[in-house]
Amino acid sequence: MNTQGLQAGKSLATGRFASGAVALAIALASAPLGQAFAQEQTSAEEAFASSRHWASQIRSYASKSLNSDEALSVAAIPLNGPGIEQYVNADTLMSPGSIMKLVTTYAALELLGPTHHWKTDFLTDGMMVGDSLEGNLYVRFGGDPKLTLERLWSTLRELKSMGINRIEGDLVLDGSYFRVDGGFPTFEDNGDNPHAPFLVEPSGYLTNLNLLHFQVRADERGTQAWTTPDLGEVSIDNRVTALPEGPCPARSRFDWEPVFHENHQVTVRVTGQLPQGCRSTTYLSLLPHERYSASVIRSVLSEMGIIVSGGDRFEGTPEDARLIMRTTSPDLVSMVRDINKWSSNVMARQMLLTIGAEFRKEDDKDDRVAGIRTVYEWLENMGINTAGMVIDNGAGLTRHGRITARQGAQILQQAWDSPYASDLMASMPIIAMDGTMARRLRNTGMDGEGRIKTGYLENVRSIAGFTRDDNNTTWAIVGMVNNDPAWNGQAVLDRVLYSLHFRPPVGMTLSQSADENPASSIQ
Fold first, then answer.
1. Torsion of CA 369, 371, 376, 379, to 10 degrees
2. Where in the chain is the domain with CATH 3.40.710.10?
3. Based on the number of CB atoms within 10 Å of its own CB, is 2 exposed (0-12), middle (13-18) or buried (19 or more)?
4. Rounded to a whole number, what is the distance in angstroms from the first to the last CA of the chain?
5. Where in the sequence of the chain do the CATH 3.50.80.20 domains occur?
6. Handedness of CA 41, 42, 44, 50 (dihedral sign)
7. Domain 3-113+334-502 listed as CATH 3.40.710.10
8. Please, which pLDDT band fits residue 36 given cuts at 50, 70 and 90?
9. With a threshold of 0.85, does the pTM exceed it?
């Protein structure tokens, strides 16, 4: 992948400084991060000027910041210009957090293809008579990671356009696209909120990310609370009191407490105080996937004036059912962007299941297992040593996931030469500009100089992606901090990116780190 291609289809920046020394001086003088680094500027510049031992300097900085020589793992590989591969504890298996999503999404681009789409079909075993559909309405799901309310509405609107006002039959949901044997590994670190959006599991019935959007607003009438979508199973006990106009409080000042009843009924009690003109919101996942999806479809139909006379069933679609409507997802590239920009766990997990479903063998009973096997085989065919790697669920939301920095950087090195490199890179957050990197390394002279996926778990911080140095060389970079606590890990990883940009290792000094083979370690 040449630099021209990067600039045309994989742009990392809007410009660069002509001199590394000038850039460093400007960054240190003008930014909070630069101010933090300025305290060590003199000693750091002298150290880097006197040797090219970039990895040793990073190791030393991390050791002081994290009080550990083993908490940081880094691999940096130059891709298109002068530079020397750098490794710090690079063969240590680490918990990666959400940077594991890059493995899943890159695999999906290669294995499923950038134009892959998911289809959700609406079928019937009956006939249309007058303004009625005399028969059951079947919804055959296809594993869509992002079947939204808007797409459901526009598709079901076709029924109304056909003149249908009543369905004389049952609503039958078919979620058999995925094979799942015994559920999924449990993630225990839920932050005391088991209903949080990041914990939503994948499902053959997944609709609207299985989320309810709760809102409360205060005005001269008092407070009003509501949820979108508006489902019959969910009610709100609004105990928020209105205050005179004033500063709007943080969302954390409100308590949304679900109370579960029989027959999947839920009451959400909300408490707090809200000044007039203010609004507070939250997202919760409260219903099983199949119940949620059935209720959403009924709600949309009801808003259109279409009544379903029968009940809900969850089973397969008859072979002789005829197709009456279909909604097709955006292409896989769009899904990859949503996953990596905003670190969507459920969409990444849904994508891994899709790989399993599309590449399963006849005797496979679990698409998660089939997907993991398929990804391992794909990596090994590219020459990646997968020893010790644990993909687990494809999203990084796990305490079992493992990867080395060297493995991660080698995967990115392969991705750089992929026909779909531009698609993968465009999906990743831009340094200091958007996604999960929007507030990092701002005003340091690095705005737009890299596309970096981030990872965050308790005691885990991580980065992975592509960044450009001040010589216009692009690097594949993977960094992980596993430490108790890891709160300072983000600053350490930001320092890795900062140093790689302004003081890239381009000298010819050979050295051996404590954990590296002298034949392969050039630092």
1. -170
2. 3-113+334-502
3. exposed
4. 24
5. 119-183+289-329
6. positive
7. yes
8. low
9. yes
